[in-house]
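[step 3/7] fold_predict: job queued, chain A
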Amino acid sequence: ERLMPRRASVIVAQTTGLAQFNGAGAQWLIQTPGGVVYLVYVDTGSDVAFKKSTNYGLTWSNPTVVFAGTTTAVAVWYDRWSDIAAGLIHIAYQESATDDTLYRTINTESSDALSTQTVIFAGTSTATGGCLAITRARGGNVYCATMIDAGAEGGFYRLPNANVPSGAWDAARATVFEAITGDMVLLFPGFAADNQDIIAIFWDASANEISRKVYDDSGNSWGETSISTGMADQVATTAFPHFDGFVDIANSQIVLVAWNGVDTASADLLGWTVTESAITAFTTPVVSNGTDDQGLCAITTDLATGDWYCFYGGKSDGSETFLTSINIYYKVSQDDGATWGPETQLTYTARDTTWLIATPRWNTHFTVAFHNDIALDELMVSAPIAQPRANFVLGL
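[step 4/7] structure written:
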């Protein structure tokens, strides 16, 4: 485990209402190989915008607008998380004017050039209760799962590799959804010989169950295996996300964490490694038998050491109040989830924190972003600042 420098909570931007997270959009901070961090967000005009930082979140660029409209959800993916040596950030976003799910990319390796906007799904009405996720298979196809409301409006869509980034999306593919009200999904590339297959982590709200769904691209079909039952969800309009994962490229697996209860006494922050053929639970939960007032999570990996860092909201002794005043904490595993180190406090001002994401893969420094809803709808990050130093004169 690295000795981390002191950190400051930095206001990056303001958002509008709860649009940053209440559409259950699967988001992460992006960190490029050069250490540049990107945050894609919904601004105060309900537009999709991004900012970037060259010092791991301490200072940020002016915003660049990706889409001007009435955004209700946004999701992102980055090429290198799929072991693709390229720099596209893939952005899917839902909007409530024409009720569509749209797509655009940022080319981080070509002056942040924006691709032509294309339509993933054309709908007729937008409401709360939907969800959104996007990923890229190792073979290059891009996939999007979108539900623009709590009714049967949306589906699962593919952008063939040859059409990336500005070409046409295919017609709807086999659905990843089941009972649709309040369901949530994360999408990841798969590891099978067919490098266009992907894996979905599906949270079935009506069944209180998380499952693995494997998509066979050539057969246009899904196979499902339960990961865990007894997973009491909390709707994304209250706080999100309460499950998260990253792609462990070196070991061809997804590392996944999820709370089995949110703001609930004796809840556990559980974890698994997931492939197409195996689901293996962590030997020790990240948090065991929490004492209420905890939720949210983000799991990341230090590329230099291989350590796993898991972030979450609320102190494990129950002394903070979820959705009123919590800090963010983290634990580190140096043995692939077999054991977890002590609870370490990341932030030092308790806030009404209702959204939490991080850089899933990082080197030198992690960056964590969160939503502060006490006074204004602020998006903040925990950024490293210099360690204090003392000067000594030796030999006197």
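[step 5/7] annotate
The two ends are 36 Å apart (CA to CA).
Confidence is low (pLDDT under 50) at residues 387-396.
exit 0
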